[in-house]
Description:
35% of the residues lie in helices and 17% in strands. It is α/β, with parallel strands linked by helices. The chain has a single domain, classed as Alpha-Beta Complex (Spore Coat Polysaccharide Biosynthesis Protein SpsA, Chain A), CATH 3.90.550.10. The model has no long low-confidence stretch (mean pLDDT 93).
Amino acid sequence: xxxxIVPARNEEENIAxxxxxxxxxxxxxxxxxxxxxxxxxxxxxxxxxMGVNILFCKDIGYQATLKKGLNELKNKNYQKFLIxxxxxxxxxxxxxxxxxxxxxxxxxxGYREKIKRISERIVNKYFNYxxxxxxxMCGVKCGDIKLYNENNILEFGIDxxxxxxxxxxxxxxxxxxxxxRKETRLGNAFFVNLSLIINLIKFLIHRK
Length: 208
């Protein structure tokens, strides 16, 4: 059974489109979980009006939101998860492409054609070489719930998966159609680059 997590913070302009894209791909509303991350707008209200499940995450941050959602799926005994960001950057075609593969591979991850941040490119080079994952921070991920590392602590999802259970042949990467946003949700470019590299180093140290 597939459960869908939609992390969202102040996405009242986008959340309805995301939900419609999912239902347009034959995902039942009862299996969609919008995880509201302390929104100050009508994100949660709109999602509730559309008949999907609402979870509230008190801890600010994308990683905390994913934890809240994935733990809920585990508690409800879902076997598969799908993550689609609530900002509507991921179009319906990309969701269709992902869902077409979810029974064939243990892990399906989209990848962006162009990645501006040099730190993201460095992170992706490592994870692609080691685990066959081309774009670890892409906003669309799908796979076996058993691959989720509920004890993840590093920023940007660096240790989001149980990588010792991931094999390159079981990973499917597919290029996504991206609806670009004007602003970035990650913040100052210098500090984001620095933080990404620091968290990658922490990951490498922990893996030794």
